[in-house]
Input
Amino acid sequence: MKYFKKLVGENIYLSPMNVEDAEKYVEWFCDFRVTDGVGRSARDDGN
Output
């Protein structure tokens, strides 16, 4: 897996997403603890 570092910190770096990241991205996207507060969540009742 090849990554292109774009933003580097002491304990983390951010890079562009690629197709190899898709499985992990979907796992995070389906986790309410990750998505809570980001737009509308699956637990939002619409009010």
